[in-house]
Amino acid sequence: MSCEPTETPTPQEIDIPALREKYRRERDKRLHPEGSDQYVEAAETFADYAEVDPHSPPVVRDPISEEIDVAIVGGGFSGIMAGARLEENGVGSFRIIESGGDFGGVWYWNRYPGIQCDNESYCYIPLLEELDYIPRAKFSDGAEIREHCQRIGKHFGLYEAALFGTRVSSLSWDESIRRWRVGTNHGDDIRARFVIMCVGSTNRPKLPGIPGIQSFEGHSFHSARWDYEYTGGDASGGLHKLCDKRVAVIGTGASAIQVVPYLGRDAEHVYVFQRTPSSVDRRGNVPTDPEWVKTLGPGWQKERQRNFHQWSFEPSPPGAAETDAICDFWTEINRNLAAKLEAMGWPELPPEQYFAMREEEDYRVMERLRRRVESIVGDSKTAEALKPYYRMGCKRPCSNDEFLETFNRPNVTLVDVSTWQGVERITENGVVASGVEYEVDCIIYASGFEVTTRLDRRLGIEPYEGRDGLSLYEYWADGLKTFHGMTAHGFPNHFYTGFTQAGAGGNITAMYDQQVTHIAWIIKEALARGAVVVEPSQQAQDGWGRTIRETAIDNTEFLLECTPGYWNGEGGGSGPDRRKKLRFIFGEPYGPGFYAFEQLLQDWRDQGDLEGLVLEAEGP
Question: Would you say 501 and 590 are in contact if contact means Cβ atoms under 8 Å apart?
């Protein structure tokens, strides 16, 4: 199937200098001096939001005391893939410790109406070939993704290793037994030779720091802990208990985009409080074509994941020999740019000319999306407030075929709270914005997760100590210190997954798989060689830090120009160190790119001598 460039406004139709200034003004009025810290008060006040499990009964069991080879902390995609890769490497003595009642991570917790993945399922859902499974549509819903997590668990026998309803409360290296002591909310004493942290970046619901948030006397919940007992219905809709309820939704990010159409359909009235509009393109979800499935050969998923990365995440299209297999809103800018470069004969351009062309495509695509708002939303004031004025890479792009249309309903009101103060306060009766109190029966916080708050807040593990009581939080307070982004000197037998000086890609599950594949191999080799301790040398860690700095692509200027969001730490806050903070938000990724990092790791494994790691055998 051919994939054509999209129709966007011509360069003559848009005034880029004027738009650039408009983007700056829109950013400035939303900047909060506290950056990510603006969420601290509410999160501490409503700590139980993260603790309550509406999907499973509390786990009641006796404490466990045991010795194992590996403790995996987290049962989302990274955790279950770590278990799968350990099994493949013959490491069978491990536990997966998960606070939820089943595997899935964010897909276990998130069950709000309309939930779907907004990356195409053929790339995002991992281990499709290994489990001989093809998703039912281009964009899978939450139930299918959760079912696949369970499928992985059953296929690799991970349920026998799982401790559900269990939250890790402490992690400390015990030199006397050369193991990690893992404490939990059940009083467990698990002594693990190795620890793999698989906690993900969306493990703690985020609440806005709105004055008076405790005072509301109606019902409230976070979209990641949807209360169907209150709303009625299920993830497919039918929220019949809201028929006489006035509902406030605070947030218009990826979750709210999907939730609002269902609320608009069923609630008496919906007030949507928006600080920053998302870009919302057409989704056009389609069932999987069985004829296409017949064409798939061995290695098809990894090939497609690479294609997605090249066309959506790389700063330039891959070239004349490659086609855009994904062909959706994620790949549009590179697809349009490739068409222009092809018409020019794929010339060798100086970087400044190339990036100017890319910037122009960005402005044209965003203008197309703003005009899409105009074409759908009837009220001109509402339409103007829903237009996104920022570069495409500033916020996660969204797609939905009903969100914008919902604002044409008479029972749906958009409340623009675009200044940094946002919602002024919450009262016992409702929400106050611009001096107006909106009385509601229910407040739904569709405010996402704590992606960029302090690590100790997100993990809730205390103490978290390596050798000689060294706190990981203190060790990383002024920046990450790792070897290959996955292990650190002073923290023996300790591995970390996520955005930590490793390869960052446009597909987070592919990133996790890259990391846990490498970690499982190291653990297998360490056990096979009779090592009880594996730890990077200080020299190797320092060398990797230099590599990260020397290959870094500095995009802080771009991020500072963006409207506040989690990709730039809510604007980076204020103060002289805000540029430094921005560099650390997504873990200083390896500059040459995701697949260059893949090759680096493969070459390192092929070398076979575990260069940079110090292996210690059992002492006398």
Answer: yes
